[in-house]
Specification:
This protein is α+β, with helices and mostly antiparallel strands. The chain has 13 helices and ten strands. Helix 5 runs parallel beside helix 6 and helix 10 packs across helix 12. This is HRQ family protein.
């Protein structure tokens, strides 16, 4: 166990913990119908290959890869072929990638109307861990947050060791494959040591000298939350380890060690109507079917971490406070928390990871249909949901700007008059996103 405890992960997915978990729950329940057909024929594992002697027992197709002992996991050795084990391919190399120019892809996860089921998509293997030009400053910010908040942002409980190591190894395999000109991993001939070289930070890390979560903290600007079946209950999943540096209004320490049901206890009707379905989905999620989705909010500036006892967090979450009369459209940012959910193959842990991405509001101006869509949500959306998102404190600036850009797009023919406002056809992308994105970043 780490000398410093670790904070709670799952709530980090969105700015408000209840809204976050409700969103994830709806996604998971929706996913069940699509993921179940992905199960392989009887007698094959999640990668579709015949079982080996170390592989799970007969009924593990119903509880994927959750029965290996510590000795069985250790038998796979360091840095095994996780692509083969999970059935999720490694990413393609990205040689043209320039960390100093790279921009995040322009996710626009807006949905209208609210009766729609919250959307999720199959994870794109090339984009599991997405780096961009804020990498150096964000890593420094996250390290500073850990130095200040300790176990409120990073913590691992006993029994999570194998899952933490497995996640770290999978993440590093991704980095050295996707960005080989920036990351290299060197193993000694006897596998007694592994050195990660990070050419962006101009540092080398002796991996075995650091806890796996610290390796992630110092090299990957994303939050991770690890859940495992409880050994003392009927398999309820428990949040056991994580690094969470982008939560608004909560922290890791308030959630770690709790089951899904306990984490969701404040959610109305969860115990009666949702708990069993959520637990069933977690138990059946296959390794080869990771998912992704996004949540969003509008922010004044770029707030990354607001602990629950922070005055700004209380104002933000309650939708109160004062609307700044000097606020300008260029000071308002879209915050997207882009999230993935996957089972990792050896420990059977279910892992969330998520990253806060910020985009200036005025970027919407030339994105067809986006101003009208966001305006519709702000003006016609359920007020309680908007208060959850904390949009009130910027609406006095955002709404007039969006209305003006909507009319401007109509006048320019970017959108057709009379078109119904609805979720973007290529959700979460707007028409022409790739051209704009590549033009702005230069590759």
């Amino acid at each position: 166990m780490l000398s410093t405890p670790i904070p709670s992960p799952l709530t980090a997915l969105v700015s408000n913990p209840l809204y976050l978990w409700l969103g994830v729950l709806l996604i998971l329940l929706s996913a069940v119908r699509l993921l179940l057909p992905l199960r392989k024929p009887k007698g094959r594992d999640a990668a579709g290959t015949p079982p080996r002697s170390i592989s799970p027992k007969p009924r593990e197709k119903d509880h994927p890869n959750t029965s290996r002992t510590a000795a069985e996991i250790a038998a796979f050795g360091r840095f095994p072929d996780y692509a083969k084990l999970s059935g999720v391919p490694l990413p393609k190399p990205y040689p043209e990638f320039d960390i100093h120019k790279a921009l995040p892809r322009p996710y626009r996860p807006f949905r209208w109307a609210y009766h729609q089921t919250m959307s999720f998509k199959k994870l794109e293997p090339d984009w599991w861990l997405e780096l961009e030009n804020t990498y150096i400053s964000r890593i420094a910010q996250r390290k500073a947050l850990f130095a200040q908040h300790g176990s409120n942002v990073l913590q691992a409980l006993p029994g999570s060791e194998a899952a933490c190591t497995e996640l770290m190894e999978m993440a590093l395999q991704f980095l050295v494959t996707r960005y080989p000109h920036y990351f290299t991993l060197t193993q000694s001939s006897t596998n007694a040591s592994e050195i990660l070289t990070n050419k962006i930070l101009q540092k080398s890390f002796s991996i075995r000298d650091h806890h796996p979560l610290h390796v992630l903290l110092e090299n990957i600007p994303e939050d991770f939350a690890i859940t495992l079946p409880s050994p003392t209950t009927t398999g309820d999943y428990v949040f056991v380890a994580g690094v969470i540096c982008s939560s608004l209004g909560w922290n890791l320490a308030t959630k770690i060690g709790k089951t899904l049901s306990q984490i969701h206890a404040p959610v109305p009707d969860y115990a009666e109507k949702m708990s069993k379905s959520m637990d069933r989905f977690f138990s059946k999620l296959p390794c080869n079917a990771p998912i992704q989705r996004g949540s969003w909010g509008l922010e004044h500036g770029q707030p990354l971490y607001m602990p629950a006892d922070d005055d700004d967090a209380h104002t933000h979450l309650r939708g109160g406070g004062v609307q700044d009369p000097l606020l300008k459209p260029e000071d308002v940012f879209l915050r997207v928390d882009w999230q993935t959910l996957r089972r990792i193959p050896l420990s059977g842990a279910v892992v969330f990871n998520f990253k806060a991405l910020f985009t200036r509001l005025d970027e919407f101006r030339d994105e067809p249909g986006v101003p009208a869509l966001v305006l519709e949500i702000l003006e016609q959306g359920k007020r309680s949901l908007m208060l959850y998102k904390g949009t009130w404190h910027v609406e006095h600036v955002a709404v007039p700007a969006l209305r003006a850009w909507k009319e401007e797009q109509l006048a320019k023919g970017l959108v057709q008059a009379g078109c119904e406002v609805a979720t973007l056809e290529a959700y979460p992308w707007f028409d022409g996103w790739r051209g704009k994105w590549t033009s702005q970043q230069g590759f």
